[in-house]
Amino acid sequence: MAQPLRVLHVLNQFFAGLGGEEHANLPPALFRGARGPGKLLQQLEPDIEVVATVATGDNYVAEHLQQAADEVVALVAAEIGEGAFDLVIAGPAFGAGRYGMACGTLCLALGRRFDVPVVTALHEDNPAVDTFRRELTIVPASADVMGMRGTLMRVAQVAVRLGVGEALDATNAPVLSRGLRRNRFAQRTGAERAIEMLLRKVAGEGVVTEYPMPKFERVPPAAPIAAAARATIALVTSGGIVPRGNPDHIESASASRYGRYSIAGLDALSAATHQSVHGGYDPSYANADPNRVLPLDAARALEREGRIGKLFDSYFATVGNATAVRRAQRFGEEIAATLVNEGVQAVIFTST
Amino acid sequence: MVKELERAGLPTAHVCSIITISKTVGANRIVPSVAIPHPLGDPRRTPEAEFALRKRLLERALEALQTAVSGQQVFETDIG
């Protein structure tokens, strides 16, 4: 490279050498040249020159994300100005949550204002990954600072390629998938490609899937209830059973909400009172008898027989049809908090 | 959603038709049901037989809620 790649480096107060947790409230400060990891970055990749370093306190940014982003942009505009750097690198922030959020927020703000490529490095479990992965190029970082050198080598490689205008994604560079799907034309049909893949697999050769399945984390099982006969039990469904007319306008696909509906004094659901708004299965059976999805009639029978202590007097419903996992997680968290708060001990969850 | 309920300490029986999805997503107490459009029913049966079937599935769900599990466990029901 004839000209070195001029980098603006974003760090937190700790990695910038300004102090630890006691200085986490530091407002943005700008320094000429490289600090901390920026120095190692320059050693690892001589084509990179860190022209300036922005340092911000972890708490300062986390507590005023937008304000801090505006201040950093103003500071860089005033002290360095347009056209003085080619690329922004933030971090690595490893698994640090506040620092990760700062890296993501400041990358986006600086990239937009100065129209330069931006890259950060985060560990996959950093909560900022979910927030920013769609919008940002994120290099996978080690879990902690022990992996600084290896992480910076990947950052340098990605930065140099971004600097010459290459389009990078998880298929051609060490960066996290943005979760985007790109259409392309294949010469051979899916059936042919699948057979070929199978033959390679049988022959013990490496096989790379065309569509990796999402990975779901596991939750340790909750302790059982001692006796259903003495417990308050709630019904929850992702099968889209709502009062007729769908008062909360729950969408038939990609639901953005759930509903809470009273069943106090109600012995059974019926076609006259309830319906299915789920768009992912033939709703005629559920519309004819909604108890087939939300089994209120049988649950009431068990309550009368004393085998369920008490059926919680509301049920919760949403539509589980192409519903984003993150959203479903939020529904689950909110419903769980409500149920725990209102004395429910166990849940029967029905899905279609 | 099932996982978030269990995470909050509420044992949750997931009554569902597609066991593989429930397993992949990570439910811990899984009760296989009848069919996707009528998980707790069967329109081919008489209303009485259908109600009895639904009650049996719920009884199995109650057993799941009263069972200590160490990981994912499937609670099959003989639904005839």
Provide the descriptors you would attach to this structure in a database record.
heterodimer; A: 352 residues; alpha/beta; 5-stranded mixed β-sheet; 10 helices; elongated; B: 80 residues; 3-stranded parallel β-sheet; 40% helix; 14% strand
Question: Any overview of this molecule?
Answer:
The complex is a heterodimer of chains A (352) and B (80). In chain A, helix 1 (37-44) crosses helix 6 (148-163) and helix 3 (65-79) packs across helix 4 (97-114). Chain A starts with a strand and ends with a strand. Chain A has helices spanning 37-44, 58-63, 65-79, 97-114, 127-132, 148-163, 190-202, 284-288, 296-304, 325-341, and strands at 5-12, 29-32, 48-56, 87-94, 118-122, 137-140, 232-237, 241-243, 259-262, 274-276, 310-311, 314-317, 346-350. Chain A is built from 10 helices and 13 strands. A 6-stranded mixed sheet of chain A has the order 2-3-1-4-5-6, sandwiched between helices. Chain B has 80 residues and is an alpha/beta fold. Helix content of chain B is 40%, strand content 14%. Chain B has 3 helices and 3 strands; from the N terminus they run H-E-H-E-H-E. At the A-B interface, helix 8, helix 9, helix 10 and strand 13 of A face helix 1, strand 1, helix 2 and helix 3 of B.
Short description:
The complex is a heterodimer of chains A (352) and B (80). Chain A is of the alpha/beta class and 352 residues long.
List the helices and strands and how they pair.
The complex is a heterodimer of chains A (352) and B (80).
Chain A: E1 5-12, E2 29-32, H1 37-44, E3 48-56, H2 58-63, H3 65-79, E4 87-94, H4 97-114, E5 118-122, H5 127-132, E6 137-140, H6 148-163, H7 190-202, E7 232-237, E8 241-243, E9 259-262, E10 274-276, H8 284-288, H9 296-304, E11 310-311, E12 314-317, H10 325-341, E13 346-350
Parallel strand pairs in A: 1-3, 1-4, 4-5, 5-6, 7-11, 7-12, 7-13
Antiparallel strand pairs in A: 2-3, 8-10, 9-12
Chain B: H1 2-7, E1 12-16, H2 19-25, E2 29-32, H3 47-65, E3 73-74
Parallel strand pairs in B: 1-2, 2-3
